[in-house]
Structure prediction request, 327 residues.
Amino acid sequence: MIPNFKRLLKNHALDFLIIGDVLFYLQAGIQSFGPKIYEKLFRLNPTAVGKILGIFNGTGFVAGVLLGGLLVKKKDWEPKKLMFIFLTLNLVSVPFLFGILLHCPTQEHVLPVVGECNSQCTCTTELYDPVCDPVSQTTYFSPCFAGCTDWELDLEIGDSPGEEQKVLQYTNCTCNAGDMGLVPGECGDTCSTRLWISLTISTIENVIKFAGFVANNVIYQRIVAESDRTTAQGLRQFGRKALGTLPAPLMYGWIIDQHCDVWRGYQDGTVGNCWLYDLTNLVMWLCVVQVALKLLSCSFYFLSYMSFPDKTPIMDSPDESTEENIL
Prediction:
């Protein structure tokens, strides 16, 4: 076992490929927070967002794997050629990572939530019950934090004859300078056009990314001698899981928490989940981290590609005297 590890560590093409995969899985770890991010950026229903992302991400994965399989099966390329294709696909997918910047315009929230106008109201952040000023398009955390002391039901006439509905309005709100009452809910709409464009960009990125996934698997089978493949797969899985998949949610979770503006506070003093985020800076940071990790992984993939010999020797068993242990 130890001689196998020593031999594999001397295989620089394998070493750089594993490091690139670790960075690749660190970047891809943002998908753990995909539903939460889309829910906040596009003001979606928490139940619906999981179904929408499942359909689009699943479509991208299946289409990418099928395309990659056909690509690899079409021609029996040498490992160095496959590595070049894999590197190219990863570079092509980089611009699509900027699709996260295409989100609904961020709405103005009154922060900090506690001010002079509501200091006597004994409000809490245990429940998020937003209200909107339709004139200024400003969102308050709750009627209490808006300083509202009264409410009323107004009769609203619909477009069709006889179509009427009662609309709840909060009035006498000391924190709101306008004359109109506040209505329940956040200001702004779901901007569905941007949502579908962003989902399409994300799906294309997944297709390109997973198209290279098949080539990546084949490269690992041909980058080492046959007797070393089991050990190489063990190193590959350890690097991906222990150094990529596991720490990725912790890293992205920390970044997201750093941009929380209002935490859920309970009466016993404990803190729960985050209610409001600084979405503008959060999206910018997520985009920068993703692109940086992607480019770093591509750099190591390039080093792996350069470490391949021009003509890959075929070896049935490892040879200690062979400088490059590649099959």
User: Anything to note?
Assistant: Residues 313-327 have pLDDT under 50 and may be disordered. The CA atoms of residues 64 and 210 lie 5 Å apart. The longest strand covers residues 148-157. The chain has nine helices and eight strands.
